[in-house]
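Appendix C reproduces, verbatim, an entry submitted by the partner laboratory led by Prof. M.T., so that reviewers can inspect both the input and the predicted structure.
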Amino acid sequence: MPTNLQADDISPTSILLTWSAPSQTFGTIIGYTISQELAPGIYDPVTDTSNSKTSYTVTGLTTDKEYTYVVKARYNTGTSSAVSSSATTTPTLDSEPPSKFNVSSPPVSLTATAISPIQINLGWNYPSKVGGTPITGYRIDVKVGNANYITLQQDTDSSTRTYSHLDLTTDTQYSYKVYAINPAGTSGPSNEASAMPSTSSSPPQAKEKPGPPRSLILNAVSPTQINISWKQPSDDGGTSITGYKIEVKKGNGSYTILSSNVGKNTQFTHTGVITGTNYQYKVYSINSIGTSTSSVTASVTPQPEATEPVSKVPDFVDSKQGAQYYLDRYYDEVAYKEWFDTNFPDYTIEDAIELAIPGTFSEDKSAKPILSFIDTTLDPQYYIDRYNNEPTYKEWFDENFPDYTIYEAVGVEEPVIQIGTCGPGTILVDGYCEAEKQSGGGCLIATAAYGSEISPQVQSLRELRDNSLLQTSSGKTFMTGFNKFYYSFSPTIADWERQNPIFKEVVKITITPLLTSLSILNYVDIDTENTVLTYGIGIILLNVGMYFVMPVVALLTIKRYVVSKTN
């Protein structure tokens, strides 16, 4: 079922609904049904959308009237998902889009490739910041030769980041710009990309064969039928997956081909199997280059009585750990999320926590008084940072105040975790796409200096670390050694910054040249070991020059000047 349904009153007569797609689907999502509550527990459909977008704006509403909505997904198989949890809000005369909803930043890395004498394919990457709401489409502008830009596609009405421009004139140059669209508006333009189709233009070749499919699951749903499902490979080999091959082994026999290519669907039904006989399966990915190695093997034995798919109950949650522990692990650790989604497909992580800690999400909690040890003259972030970064402090707090979160202790609202559509390697946090957290913790000194983990300077450091350095072996090795050194003193420096505003400003001025030099790496491609070493050594030498060589040269110059005056 859809999760994380949120209702925001964005004007006196309209409400914006946003949600996350179901984590487990049984077909391709063709749209969503949005229903409004007419009376307690009674809902009436408002609309059936015709696409997979996870947002919808309800208009023509009555000001100062409370509205409640639910959402369910519709599949191409003619079935629907379970209904989401409800979301409620009231449009008022003061309603306006929340500050977290902003126009997206532009798409990045736009490329244009002539793949035939009359066709150019466009491709681009997700914007670095989506403005707090999902991208709903893209605007595409084109320029022919030296003419002015005109709009080729006003709104693609899709989050797909590719486009094919057909029926072009051979040997004519075409230039393009792409704009991202979200409910808050249209972004600025991407970089310009150009291509000229010629008589020799042809599609680029794929780099390699794809990786194997993942998470093969079997269900004997009747004495003579086995349902097979799997997940797409983590590596498509540089080109689209065109299908999957399935092999089966009955009893002690040999593997035979059940289907040479089932298409792009990640599900298959094997009928006519023999009751009481063990069946083993392997699945292979196919792209234009070839066929992958096999997936892991899975087996099942149909029983005389039809078996229903068994849904495991997630009883692993320990209430002493607290809800945030499991939320952080689920949204920050890819392997943990995959384990949970595979083993408990009928539950969200919030459902699992609610079973062990009733009332965590099902009802509002009245505000708790601020704990007595909190010094209200200090910034609440001081206590939150200590809790998140000092294990002994966290252990002391959890042991002595089991009924409180650190946010309740200091009297601030706990950040709401949201799920949206972000690019590979990123997650949505407080309305912004951020890189998935890697080992090494946060940028404590910079966070204290600039006052927030979501400040542009701190975000830039985190993106450089996670999206560039940690993508190569040499970068990981450097960060491992650097983290041991950095976290030996950074918590103390960060505490000093929070306690002494003058010291905080001194630190900010001191690290500004370093941040400026590191920002150079955001404008270059760092995708190999050699480039990491080359740019890394260059940045190190640049900072040695700024922080050591230039001061020494200045001191020597002053000394010579003083000596010459003395003589």
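The first helix runs from residue 323 to 332. Additional entries are available on request from the coordinating office.
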